[in-house]
Amino acid sequence: xxxxxxxxxxxxxxxxxxxxxxxxxxxxxxxxxxxxxxxxxxxxxxxxxxxxxxxxxxxxxxxxxxxxxxxxxxxxxxxxxxxxxxxxxxxxxxxxxxxxxxxxxxxxxxxxxxxxxxxxxxxxxxxxxxxxxxxxxxxxxxxxxxxxxxxxxxxxxxxxxxxxxxxxxxxxxxxxxxxxxxxxxxxxxxxxxxxxxxxxxxxxxxxxxxxxxxxxxxxxxxxxxxxxxxxxxxxxxxxxxxxxx
Length: 245
Prior knowledge:
Elements: H1 2-20, E1 23-24, H2 30-39, E2 47-51, H3 60-76, H4 84-93, H5 97-100, H6 105-114, E3 116-120, H7 122-136, E4 140-141, H8 150-224, H9 231-241
Antiparallel strand pairs: 1-4, 2-3
Helix pairs in contact: 2-4, 2-7, 3-6, 3-7, 6-8, 8-9
């Protein structure tokens, strides 16, 4: 009787251990499947999708977020039922479906709110799926462990919102400072041009005044006592004094 009870307990523990690791992602030939799907796509209009905008994915909750990202990306790809791409899409879904089929919708909503929205066309979506599968290759987790990430997603989303607001304010201050600098440069240029024009007009006036005085002096010298002025002297004055300006 004791042996039977021990076997029952062992069987229960084994079952619990197996079910505790029901989320397992192993990539085999999926990369080739994605390449084949990409070769049949064109660069059509972009559509909004949710992705995890991080260069390095190390946190467990970020890996869970990638799982929800995969689900959302594949939902965006619509293929005609029965076609080759439709079957390949279903094959890709099977790589992660065991991880989220029994998950709470509140966790999914929190993860989707944590992900960032970008615009991608079909080829870019498939390339992103390829990248995310590469990050998730070998991922294993206990059933329901993503529920521990709901608080993480909410905190990260709030901090991202604060960071985004700060970046917006910093960018606005930078734009204002650049606008002020441009205004100062424009004012300095206007002042410089005005000073240049004022100096030019002043010296032009002085030049004309000097020219007028010299011409008047020449006329006086020639008409004051024309008899006293020798012809060659009159000619010299007319050439040198009067034509000097």
